[in-house]
Write a structure and sequence with these properties.
two-stranded antiparallel ribbon, about 325 residues, 9 helices, four-stranded antiparallel sheet, about 10% strand, alpha+beta
Length: about 325
């Protein structure tokens, strides 16, 4: 897929999450401008063999990828609570019990890291280490808004990996984590004033699209943290803060969108599946019937948002 030397992902990545909580436009990188691979030489060799054989990720690869995400989430809460005192959350109207609950979310993410590291070590393999991150949270309110999206991404990541798992023990371990990630998101949506259960189903998202979102926060990784997953170019929605069904998403870098062959926006939502809207005049219309966090990608196909059809993204928009 790519070479496995780490390339910095900050510019491409921060734009993706900035589009969730900000309306400031950011440039859309060209395809392959930010490869952002993660993985060791050992994993790279296994990846190459899988590519030749046409098979998917191994259970060990999935555990390492899950650990990569859990490292990020644990660091997010640790850094956030070190940066913002309880008084900052009290100013948002949070009670002492609510603040303690939010801190407990971070504590369980750290426990997930410990357990995944133990599971990987038991296989005789060194767990991937954490990276260096930039979460771009200037205040406690932004931290809560970002946490809501992070937890949604975590749930969708585990659901996306589930069909690839072959070992029952690994599947059971992943299931025990994803249910807690879902509790995290419900709790955070509730304290943020959003619907705690916006839809009947959550959406599964594949590893490459998930890593594109995770790359939003990664500034640097040690070589041994490299899992050889290539991020897509970032998708920036300049009016994400005011998005609702029937509104037109305004996409940054319209010339790049046209040149790169993007003809559709794909909207992935648990309740309504995947819906497509044509890209017209640098934007696309948000379909009805979706709720919660929705994953938006630019595609060259109006019937598939598979990796081979993705031009950029995903970005995450919140509809309720």
């Amino acid at each position: 897929m790519i070479g496995f030397r780490f390339l910095t992902c900050t510019v491409a990545g921060l734009a993706i999450f900035a589009s969730v909580i900000s309306a400031h436009p950011v440039a859309l990188p060209r395809p392959n401008a930010f490869p952002c691979p993660l993985g060791s030489e050992e994993l790279h060799r296994r990846h190459s063999k899988r590519q030749e054989g046409g098979s998917g990720l191994s259970d060990l690869d999935i555990l390492q990828f899950a650990l990569t995400l859990e490292h990020l989430e644990a660091a997010f809460y640790k850094e956030g609570f070190a940066k913002f005192p309880a008084s900052d959350f009290e100013a948002l109207g949070f009670s002492a019990e609510t603040i303690a609950g939010l801190q407990a979310v971070g504590e369980t993410e750290a426990i997930h890291v410990t357990q995944l590291m133990a599971a990987i070590t038991a296989q005789g393999v060194t767990p991937v280490p954490p990276c260096t991150y930039n979460f771009n949270t200037p205040d406690a309110a932004t931290m809560v808004a970002t946490a809501k999206v992070l937890e949604a991404v975590g749930v969708s990541a585990y659901l996306g990996a589930a069909p690839l798992v072959t070992g029952k023990a690994v599947l059971s371990a992943a299931a025990s984590i994803v249910t807690v990630e879902s509790r995290h998101q419900t709790f955070i949506r509730t304290i943020a004033g959003d619907s705690p259960v916006p839809q009947a189903f959550d959406v599964a998202v594949g590893a490459r699209q998930i890593f594109t979102l995770a790359a939003a926060f990664i500034t640097e990784c040690p070589p041994e943290a490299n899992l050889n997953i290539q991020a897509f170019p970032s998708l920036v929605i300049t009016n994400a803060a005011t998005t609702k069904a029937g509104s037109i998403l305004t996409l940054a870098q319209q010339d790049a969108i046209t040149a790169d062959g993007a003809t559709f926006c794909a909207f992935a939502s648990g309740a309504s599946g995947i819906q497509f809207a044509p890209v017209e005049n640098g934007g696309c219309t948000v379909p009805s019937g979706m709720a919660g966090e929705v994953f938006v990608t630019l595609t060259n196909d109006g019937a598939s948002n598979a990796d081979e059809n993705v031009i950029a993204g995903p970005a995450v928009i919140t509809l309720s």
